[in-house]
UniProtKB/TrEMBL annotation:
Protein name (database record): HesA/MoeB/ThiF family protein
THIF-type NAD/FAD binding fold domain segment(s): 30-268
Gene Ontology cellular component list: cytosol
Example of a GO MF term: ubiquitin-like modifier activating enzyme activity
Organism of origin: Shewanella fidelis
Family from the record: Belongs to the HesA/MoeB/ThiF family.
Length: 292
């Protein structure tokens, strides 16, 4: 009875041109999302037409990719050069013992493609570097959201520079010990807001990571869930989260919200920055020079 009612409702929901925005099978699959006034059939169609890229398929990216695929985000690119290790399994729930030694992006892509056949998932089995990003971020390849799920400071800086130079919305998250943070940057929409480099200059020292001080799986999962939710909000056109930093204390179960302001001396987004260049330990790369 519930199935019949849902199909009947789907048949009654028409777009302006008089055709169904979703097939009956898709309407049934995503019915709980479509019921939300903020989503509806048009929002679900936006998910299906979106293309997001996830940098890092570890504790964060592993769960983020699954949430976005399950929500019906139509195109997902996974980037990671690491292989699955036994120490990953308590946090990276897509993987099992049989995946140990397999590249994370490849393993995750295979599992998600099998589970969510309506979603196109591609794997890039290499680390994001100043060289590899030239093929990933060609001017003719458009991403709606760039998700930073990496586990090291240098990659986060590189991802931030790409987001600023390419005018891509960035959703970045990290978690270690009982602390987590989440931020959203889209300077094309909010020019006065800062970037990741404004908050954390490239020359600052970062010694504490989950590899050195540990982390609980649910702590990572909390940030991954929020990162996924923020991404879906952006795909729906909700920009109220842009330019804000959220910090979570997993011991106290408390959140803090801060406004990200631009540092005019920032070498990435400030007055003296060169938006078409990325500077890493490997040298300077011009983002407008691509290999085809």
């Amino acid at each position: 009875m519930e199935t019949e009612q849902l199909i009947s409702t789907a048949s009654g929901n028409k777009t302006n041109n008089g055709t169904n925005a979703l097939s009956d099978s898709d309407f049934l699959r995503y019915s709980r999302q479509v019921l939300l006034a903020e989503v509806g059939e048009s929002g679900q169609a936006q998910f299906a037409n979106a293309h997001v890229i996830v940098i890092g398929v570890g504790g964060l990216g592993n769960l983020v990719a699954q949430y976005l695929a399950a929500a019906g985000v139509g195109n997902i690119t996974l980037v990671d050069g690491d292989k699955v290790e036994v120490s990953n399994l308590p946090r990276q729930l897509l993987f099992h013992d049989s995946d140990i030694g397999v590249n994370k992006a490849v393993a995750a892509s295979a599992k998600l493609t099998k589970a969510y056949t309506q979603v196109r998932i591609s794997a890039v089995a290499e680390h994001l570097t100043a060289t590899s990003m030239q093929s990933l971020f060609k001017l003719d390849r458009q991403y709606d959201v760039l998700l930073d799920c990496s586990d090291n400071f240098e990659t986060r800086q590189l991802v931030n520079q790409i987001a600023v130079s390419q005018n891509i919305a960035l959703v970045s998250a990290s978690a270690a010990h009982f602390q987590g943070q989440l931020l959203c940057i889209e300077q094309q929409y909010k020019p006065d807001s800062g970037c990741y480099h404004c908050l954390f200059p490239a020359d600052m020292k970062v010694n504490q990571t989950c590899q050195t001080i540990g982390v609980l799986g649910p702590m990572v999962g909390t940030l991954a869930s929020m990162q996924s939710l923020m991404t879906l909000q952006l795909l729906l056109g909700n920009k109220q989260l842009v330019g804000k930093l959220y910090r979570f204390d997993g011991k106290q179960f408390s959140w803090r919200q801060l406004i990200i302001t631009r540092d005019e001396s920032c070498s990435v987004c400030g007055q003296a920055s060169h938006h078409n260049e990325c500077v890493t330990s490997a040298g300077t790369v011009n983002l407008n020079q691509h290999e085809y």
